[in-house]
Structures are given as structure tokens and as C-alpha cells.
Specification:
With 373 residues, this protein is mainly α. The protein is globular and about 60 Å long. The protein contains 17 helices and no strands. Helix 6 packs antiparallel against helix 7 and helix 15 runs parallel beside helix 17.
Amino acid sequence: MQAPMDSTGSVSSAPLPVCLPSPYSDIGEGTEFFEAEERRELELRLLHHFITIVTYTFPACNERRYRDLWTIDAVRSGFQHTFLLNAMLAISALHLLSDIRSMTYFYARDEDQVAAERVTKTLLLTDTDKGRDLARAHRVYLNTAIRQQREAISKLSPSNADAVFMASLLLSYQSLRLIPDQSTSPSYSPPIQWLKMCKAVATIIQIARPMVQNDSMMALILAYSTEPDFKDEMAMFNPIYRKPFEALLDWSQYPEPCFDQEIKHAYERTLAYVGGVYRALLNKEAPRNMIRRVVCLGVLAPARYIELLEQGRPRALAILAHHLALSQAIEEHWWFHGVAERVVYGIKSILPAEWQWAMEWPLSMVRVAESQS
């Protein structure tokens, strides 16, 4: 997999994720609430599930050489760096919680394995699984992984740089699927942490790449050639791609507060990227490529755009709704199951009345899928 840089073609200048809060505030640190025997069995189950099932769902893992980086090299590294191991356990528990049959074309196929068959046969929870609090396990292992990774990043060196990179990928992979906890939130909150975690991956690459050898996991992943080519500036950000959604950039009818050229550039560039994803959908691009396009918004969008989202700017929220409405096309992959519906209706609920028109297209994408289900 190519690791895309930020929207300027260089590595993002966003800060390292050392101050990202733990996503689940209702869960304490550590795994002390597990009994020793229960924890041993649970971690064996989760690690086995990660190796035999979860890794097959990663976009580039249809090729054995790439998948081996996760099932062999990364697991070995996890035994030395517990933040990486805990990130694996967290995403494994989250996958078990999804309990969905995903489309077979999302999964790896090679001469050794037909992964789609393995997924459909083994994804069902066992009786033992049903007796476990997998949601709590996911929360605990994810919080622990993030806390431990903060510490590792603060002491980044050649000895842990590779593991930090791999753990960062895993955290970004699962950040869009975080278990929503709206009971403590008075209103919907968009998935900004997902975008921040994705942006942090590029920053970590910038700092960690000089520390690793050419045969490291990071170097091999960065050298892996896939489509689309995120380094192709025009292919990613062609201004013509904005045309289907250009009403979102009507500055006169919908003025932007505190408007300047940096803000204008952030919106235009992000919308061009979203329009490119839409064009790829119309061109019937392969589902694996669509996955890469959707998940890479956080890496490729300008950092200023993410700041505008944090400020709750209606235009920024509407653009995000358009982008994640496109995930409806790949929603049978477990990363995106239910995401389009949750985000589109969520953003609609917090947009002011004068911006409700901007939700018509995202809502149409979701409603078409609902009518076909």
C-alpha cells in the first residue's frame, strides 16, 4: 500500500497523536478487570482471530506477501511491543462484534486460501464468545494501546519506530468503527478522531521512516504499489472533480465566517478529493480501491479542513457528509457497515436550517440503499 502524504504532496505537519484522548472515557486503564485465566483465553482467541480472519479484510491483503507482514512480522513485533499487540486485540474484538457477512470480493484470494469462505464460516460467534463482553474488551485494549503508544512515540527510536507505524495503521483502521456512546453526548459528534488518527499516520511516517531499515515493515508497506496512485496530484485533486458538488462552494449565497485564502483552499481541495471518490464510484472502480479512497480522506485533506470540522463549520460538515455517504457503496465491508447512515443522519441533525439543503444528495445515497435492503 502506498502511504499517501498530505494535500500539498509533502508529509503532514499535524502534531503526533500524543495528546489524543482515549476514545472510551467510561473504561479505566489496563486489563486488571479480567481474571487471569479469562484474560489468557480471551487474548489467545483474539490473536487467533486477528491472524486468521481480520488481516484478510485489510485492503491490500489479497496478496500473500503483504498479508504476511501482518500475520507474521507484525505479530512477532507485537510480542516485543505491547502497544502493537493491544491494537491487534482491539481491532479483533471489534471485528467479532460486527458479526456481519461481508461481500466476498473484499477478501483475499490466493492459491493457499479462499479467505471469503473462511470468513463466512468462522465469523459466527461461538458460545464462548457470546459469554464474553467483547465490547468492553475492545474498549479496554484500544484505550490501553493508545496510552502505551503515546509513551512509545515520546521515546521514538529505531527500536520501536516500525511497531509504532504498524500500530498507528491499526488504530486508524478501527477509528471509524468506534462503538458510539451517545448516552453522554447531547448531540451528534462527527468522526473527527478518525481523521486525526489518519493524519497522524503520515506524521509518524515522516519522523520514523529515517529510523528504519529498507527491509522493515514500514519500508515494505510504503513501497507496495497499489491503485489509486495517491502521489498523482492531478488524479487526486483535479478541480473539475468539484463540479457535481460546486454549490457547496457558493461563497456569496452561503458566506463563510472569518474567510481567507487558506480556508478557501482547504475547502476546494477537500471537495476536489471527495469529487474524485465520486467519479471513481461512477467509473465502477474496484471495491478495494474505493476503500482506500474513503479511508485516506484524513491523510490527504488539509489539516485546516479538519480544524474547520472541529469548529463545527456547516460547510465542512456538509462536505464530510458527502464523502462518507459514498461509503454506502462499500458498506458491506465491516469497516463501513452502517457508517454512511449514521454519519449522514447525524450531521443532518446538527446542521442549521439554512444548510439543510446540502444534505439532499447524501440523504439520497443512503435512502437508495435503504430501499434496496
